[in-house]
Amino acid sequence: MTRLSGKTALITGGTSGIGLATAELFVKEGAEVIITGQNQERLNQAVSAIGHRVTGLLVNQTDTNDAKSIANQVKARFEALDILFLNAGVTMPAATNDEREERFDEQMTINLKAPFFIMQNLAPLMRSGSSVIANTSCLDQMGIPGMAVYAATKAGLRSLVRTWAAEFVGHKIRVNAIAPGPINTPIYGKLGFTAEALQEMATDIQSKVPMGRFGNPEEIAKAVLFLASDESSYMLGEEIVVDGGWAAL
Ligand SMILES: NC(=O)c1ccc[n+]([C@@H]2O[C@H](COP(=O)([O-])OP(=O)(O)OC[C@H]3O[C@@H](n4cnc5c(N)ncnc54)[C@H](OP(=O)(O)O)[C@@H]3O)[C@@H](O)[C@H]2O)c1
Fold first, then answer.
1. Mutate to test the pocket of ligand 1, among 11, 18, 158, 208 (most ligand atoms within 8 A of CB)
2. Does residue 148 fall inside a structural domain?
3. pTM (two decimals)
4. How far is CA 235 from CA 6, 159, 208, 244, in A?
């Protein structure tokens, strides 16, 4: 299948997890893919794992100047985009009583402020018929202790998707969201938890998800492909939840 033949896609945070799986699927479907990441070595590894029709761009989402730099590089090397997957993100669980301002600011900057300015800079480069997908989370509609700031960043991103959908529909750019549930990616290894605490958290999550398991990045990539392709041509401002039934049941 080549559902994305002739299309150019930019995926933020394409070095691992959901972003990498989506980049691999998009390339298989015929797209030219640009991935971003904040670390040159991980970027190089991802580019060689994907193998062909892929370019890596070094971007740190804590610096909003990088949004302008992405736009300049895309313009110079690719002219325009057809697909933008705003995927890069971090999570730093903490009870509200224990939260620190710098962690609050870091999550807000990477998960909400950076996607806003990347969209602001890249929207003028998006062709008529383009699709933008933001990676939110099923937590944007749930109340899970310890996830206050992360869930708020994702609820903010969900809100941006609605406004952008309304603002850009006249430019023939569709904007939607994908809301994953717990997905087996490197994000959990970055929490700073001990192996025992991680296992305890995984067991607790599995007991709450009706399907009794974590999802795989490829299960999210397939839904992103749907939103990126013309198969979702009548979807606008929506969010597809892929979470094993956690939020709905
Ligand atoms: N896994 C889940 O259970 C789950 C559930 C719901 C939503 N999500 C969302 O899915 C998205 C992808 O997560 P994942 O699980 O695939 O995690 P992951 O494997 O940790 O991937 C995160 C990606 O974001 C990039 N990134 C992080 N901080 C960055 C920064 N400051 N500047 C630029 N890039 C940065 C990373 O690049 P580097 O390699 O350079 O650090 C990496 O490519 C996130 O937005 C996350 O919130 C995940």
1. 18
2. yes
3. 0.99
4. 21, 16, 30, 22
* pLDDT attached to residue 64: 86
- Whether 173 maps to a domain, the answer reads yes
Q: How many domains does one find in the chain?
A: 1
Q: Is ligand 1 within 6 A of the CB of residue 186? A: yes
**Known catalytic membership, residue 234:** no
CATH of the domain at 159: 3.40.50.720
Query: Which residues constitute the domain of residue 18?
Result: 8-242
Separation of alpha carbons 52 and 118, rounded Å: 25
- Give tens-digit pLDDT for 7-55: 999 999 999 999 999 999 999 999 999 999 999 999 999 999 999 999 9
User: Counting Cβ atoms within 10 Å, is residue 28 exposed (0-12), middle (13-18) or buried (19+)?
Assistant: middle
List 26, 85, 150, 164, catalytic entry = 150
42 with 14: CB under 8 angstroms?
no
